[in-house]
Structure formats: C-alpha cells, structure tokens
Amino acid sequence: MSANKALDPRLHAFRPDLADARLEGRVAAQRHVVGRPARIMAGLCPVSRRPDRSAPIDTHYHYGEPVLVFAEEDDWAWCQSAFDRYVGYVEARALANPAAPTHYIATLGSHLYKEADLRSPSLDFLPRHAAVTIAETGLVTRGTGYARLDTGGFLPLACLLPQPPRSADLVAAARLYLGCPYLWAGKSFFGLDCSGLVQSAFRDLGVTVPRDTDLQRDVIGIGISVRDIADLRRGDLLYLPGHVLIHAGDGRVIHADGASMTVREDNLSEWLRSRHLDLEDCFVRRP
After folding, report:
1. Nearest one of 37, 34, 163 to 99, comparing CA atoms
2. CA 5 to chain centre
3. Element (H or E) spanning 93, and its range?
4. pTM (two decimals)
C-alpha cells in the first residue's frame, strides 16, 4: 500500500513482515500484531535502527519507560515507547514486566547501588524522570536512607520524589543540563543532543514533545516571524536544519552544541555570525 509512505517509521511500528495491529488497513505487512506491554529496566537504553550493536542509535529509552513490544528476535526486541512513540530496537535483556511507578528520579540522576550503602558497587545510573517502583523503604546506612526497587538494587531516598520533578520554566529546565556532554541520540545527564535537550526541558514542565528537531518544529507552539533578536521572548525555540536553540532571554541561547561537544549558553548574535547565519535563517517557534 502506498499509505506506508505517509507514516513516519520513527513514530509508527511497521516493516514489510510485521506491523502494529493499530495500523491494520493503513499499512501493508505480512502480519499485524498487538504489542505486548513492557517497561525498560536499564538506566539508559540505546534504541537502534537495526537489531545490531553496530547500527546507528537514534534515541534512548530510560529506566521505567513503558513500551510496546512487537517482536523479539535473536536477543533483540522491536519496541515503541509509550512516552514519545519512538520506534526502534533494544536488547531484550533491557525489558521487564510492567509495573506502576511509585517514585521518580528528581535529581539529574542517581546511581543504583548493589546494597543500601553508597560504598557498594554501582549497578547502573538512572537519569532524571526515570520512573521506579519501590518495594521496600526504611533502609538507613550511616544516616543515608535508601529504597529497594522491585527490579533489584537500591536508590538514595534523597534522589526520589513521589511525583515527576518540575522546573519553573523551559529555560530553567534547560539550564539544569549546562556543562553536560553532547551525545548524539542522548537526552540525559550523561549526554544530550540538541533536540534531546529540548525534549528533556519540556518534560520538566509536564509536557511531552517529539524527539527529533524536524518533528518538534512542526508541532511545538506556533511559528512566528521575528526580524530582530530583541523581539525574541524567553523560551522561544530557534530551529535551523538539524539544530535547535532555546532563547534564554537578553539575546542569549542554550543548546547542546556538537562543535564544542557540550550543553552551553551563547550570545545568539555572535553564534549566528560565527556560522555565517542570520536570524532570518531560523524558524522560530513560540511555545
């Protein structure tokens, strides 16, 4: 069917041999299947374009993220995130049965310890907003409280909240990540790309936006025409091909910069000039 061409494979699970049952009648496939609910139990789970460790990584699922699993083959699972609908392949060992979250990582991240003791080995690193299910509390070692997860391991209670963490506004949320390394397909303390930074910042406002710049540019807020940097407002988003910057006010922008390999704050005029660009080259979205 030609309808396949109208659907973005990043956001719809279909391939020639298999497709999401919700797409039946819209895409051609040998079989249509109902996705099996699961959740991610790896702190940072790479999502690959193909079931191959050498394949490009397009995004990351985070611990506790609910997914639908459409196929499991040769230690790989073909999944779709229930958070931002992104489709891709993950290693099947990263999957666990669904469970309702009780708490969320409220700091930029937390180590998951083997024992209720910060001197014990770190089993994993869980990023901000990771949704966890606590099986036991009341564990205290040398004055530090811990919670045991249903999947095993212990988290410091100081890193947890019973509700998702929030920031005052988009700029405040983005500033949390200043100095973090740039990482293509990343969206955590360990590394972010430009659109991952935007998605993570919006998540701190309780808003889910698409993962990639081209998808964000089409749906976030409204497009506006801006002729002068002075007309920009705090929180405006400036899109260029393959890049996005967050206006922080006073002509400054926050972005995950692939040139310096870090999340940084820059003077917008100077940044544009250094790349032989003008404000007119930017597509501005106002949330």
Report:
1. 37
2. 26
3. none
4. 0.95
